[in-house]
User: What shape does this take?
Amino acid sequence: MRGCGVARDDGFDEFVIGASSRLLRAAYLLVGERAAAEDLLQDVLEKMFVAWPRIDEPTAYARRALAHGATNRWRRRSRKPEVPLDGHDRAAPTADPTVRRDVIAALATLPRGQRAVIVLRYFEDLTTEQTAAALGCSVGTVKSQTARALPRLRDLLALTQEAC
Amino acid sequence: MEIEDLMNEATAGLHPSPTLLHDVRKGGQRRRRTRRVVTAAGTAGLVAVGVLGYPLVSGPKFTQHYAGTLFDGRVHGDLKADPAFLRDAVTAWNASHKTSGNASRGIFQDLRGKAHVVWAGTTPAGKAALVEQDAFLHRHGDIQLKHEGIYSLLGFIGAGADGKPVVVGDTYPTDPADGVETNAWFVDPARTVLAVAENGGDFGVSTGWIYDTKVHRDFTPIPDQDGVGVVHLTKPATSAVHVAQLPVRGIADMRMIAGAEQLSTNYQAFTLPWRNKIVLAGAAAGTGNALQTFAKTLNTQILDQASIVGYGSWSVRGATPDGRQFLASEIRLENDPSHAYVLVGTDLVAGSQIDPQAVLPVAVALPDAQGWVVAAMGASLKYRIGSGAWVSAGRDAALLPASATAVQVTAKAGAPAVVSLRRS
Assistant: This one.
């Protein structure tokens, strides 16, 4: 039954169970802290719960909301760079902690728009058109931000891999 | 490695909380109620919102009961013929619902039939029991159900401080996709005796991680006594105690223990806050990210049973007298205190539990008489052999000779302190 609430058989539970791992990973890359990523994802999913009967493409909706939520969060924090994780973050048990730290630190050096473009293009594997739609900007903006961000990231991560 | 690969690796294994769905539904309901109340200020007809917020499915179309030998309708255990205890156990169950942690999930709001004991037995800590009762579980923001219907509830009965039956915890069937099942409970308040509803399965208990050349757990099989196994722990349990179905292949085989909720360790009190990257003489240059190598090696050694793993943000690198590269740091699993580890070549050498307040927090003896790796960041270090003269070993960290017997540690603005080196 749709329209007056979220019934158990309308696919919301299945969407959360099936998509939340991937969305949490994207949120983590966007905000750089696990706790903040969990808060952001829960916030987005709660809004989706309320709006569920009107949402036609849940995954796209969630990605867009995550990107906007991360952007708003950055705005609230006056664009303060995220603090890279230390070795004791309550993070993924199988993830390599140093890779995680290096990637988050590198992403934190990017302006928020570039960071969101990189996460959507290269983690979520969206096309430039899909990324533009998700972020509400032009395809040209996605391309130019990608062109600026990618070399910087590659430099930073290559340097990190060499450093000890 | 490409950007996409690095981002995937950086987030590998990152999973949402098992309670995410229920948290989202709860928060979403709250938002929806708030919105409707706000709307209703101008539209009176919309004020009426169901107590639970969901349309109910009419009639019990779905049932989910526990199955197996333990739930065959008979009472099991050596106290099955003790009617007074069986009665007391049910009385304790009936009186426990308001204070249950599951009360907010509404599982007791529509109980069906009468509670009955499925197992009652004697344990070293007193009498214990397992009680079952049916309930119709309705959709609710605090519970994850795929279907409304009749479910079995279980009550785990232990012995209170006065020896009388007390409900340690309760549960209802859990979908494996939504969470981990509870099938064990601490019988006594001191948590020295554990009862496990094995129900014909093979279960084991582990009292904690074993820090050796491999970081691992040993699960001791729990003998099944008429459906329930009883374990007498040699000392009061910590949060490191785990029960799992055998053979243990990963986290999915773990089970929850009722009564363990209050057990925790403040691991941050046992973790070094250091971020120093110390490079000693002989350390190879250009070997890549040394901590990354450390973490990868440890990852291959750790069973997929640790829900939280942390590595040190500090490291000490150098070379042993026989020419092997080494790296020292620390590792933390779940709520355990950190332990020092040294990676020598490709071999792991276990150190002791980290005590950040210790004068010399890290002192690890390397095998094959390759020396001692010691570290006390910010302090100057000296060592001696027997009653010989003190020899300077620099600051922060050092590789000392295997024959060293004591270290003198002088922190900034502190008096020298002497620490004996003893192989465990």
